[in-house]
Amino acid sequence: MVNSNARARRWIARSPLGRVLALTVSALLLSVCASLVAPGAAQPAAALGNGLALTPQMGFNDWNAYGCNVSESLIKSTALAMHDNGMQAAGYTYVNIDDCWMTHTRDSSGRLVPDPAKFPDGIKGTADYVHSLGLKLGIYEDAGTATCAGYPGSLGHETTDAATFASWGVDYLKYDNCNNNGVPGQSRYTAMRDALAATGRPILYSLCNWGQENVWTWGAGVGNSWRTTGDINASYSSMLSIFHSNVGLASYAGPGHWNDPDMLEVGNGSLTATEARTEFSLWSEMAAPLIAGTNIASASSTTLSIYTNSRVIAVDQDSLGKQGTLVSSGGGLDVMAKPLSNGDVSVALFNETGSTATISTTAAAIGKTGASGYNLTDLWSGATSTTSGAISASVPAHGTVMYRVAGGTTGGGTGTTGALHAVGAGKCLEVPNSSTTAGTQVDIRDCAGTPNQTWTRTSGGQLAVYSGSSQMCLDAYNNQTTAGTKVEVWSCNGQANQQWSVNSNGTVTGTQSGLCLDVTGASTANGALAELWTCNGGSNQQWTLG
Q1: Residue 115: which CATH number?
Q2: What is this structure's pTM?
Q3: Which residues are catalytic?
Q4: Is 263 in contact with 336 (CB distance < 8 Å)?
């Protein structure tokens, strides 16, 4: 069970009141950090480039199961269990210490001090033991004046603390966000990035700023992963909420930089075995870090079978590094697709509702074409089957069925014809009222399979509707390249404002503008207009063609 008192302290520390109480020291810290604050709005950054987390990191963290009750003996026994029970062989590498590992004061040289009662051999001794098993050690600190549980934070001490971690043999830093005194997150997290780099030791850098300040827009240049939400807890409702927040951010993830929907609760709390398999399925489909947060040494055979399912892990760890996207979503029935490096596609059929339901999609909808039959592997049961294109399963309440789909080609290439599905709204892009008037702005409406909702990707990169003398092309109004430009139909002319990229991350971008095809205001209503907008990872910018 999670230590509820420690959890409460964490949330109190994150409150506005906590910041107010800390203002007595903030003036000095602000003056130190002011030079690090980047002017203007944050822009998407290039990958960090430290060579780590080329696939999402896998490991263990003690917080969810133990709270502040961390110790050297716990970390060593967990590492040994992972070494012996198949988790290490399955890819789990990091054994991570969370909050409460240190004393409440630094030493006379300003260095952090491991609590000698909890870590009699120090962090260095603990790391040496973990390394002897072929595993790696992670540690926790905070980008504020104090950690969430009230221990010394690293704000203003980044260089010293990074050097200390490196000297101890630390391989991973989880960097939290409590008691931050209102200093912008990007500057605080960048300061520790630079300090870690200066040590010369490869240390995976996990940003834990709870999804604040649109971290996904700048996190790739700062850390190897970034939390996209607040803390998870061991309940279905918490897992579902976090899934909804994280699933639309696929365009920001990739090798070396991942969206992090928080640690896994498999084996904890009120999660049933079905719900635990769902969490593991969805996290893997979303290319999320797989950080186990349960009592590993006493985990049940069911819990271990979930954590060590090699077929599902392979989806998460696929080298192509694509986060899965929603193909369809409506009535609590979700279909996700994730392209894989060998040309297969992983499909997750997720039933959010409280009753068993049949969930269906097609090979074309998930980006598969060019075959009369496709091979399906059920990633939980291992059963195999074939289909001519329909992909369907009876899915229990709160359950997920995962398939790996092989055969044909992947990726909605030239010649693909079908509906252009607006994933967030569960509707289709159309020419209103089947108009053939040039300049008609396109919108979304319930999918009907009609000619005004049928689009073809041409060899010239156009998206054409209708045929023959009536054919028209999707067009950015008047060659404009600014956010808010209306998207219309116009006579096909081959110009740059009629050229579109249908991307594997689910976006459709204008070749001329680089902007995303967007449902205005994230509306899900019939008649909602389409426009160009800055790509932001929102579900209203997710599309599938086919």
Answers
A1: 3.20.20.70
A2: 0.73
A3: 176, 231
A4: no
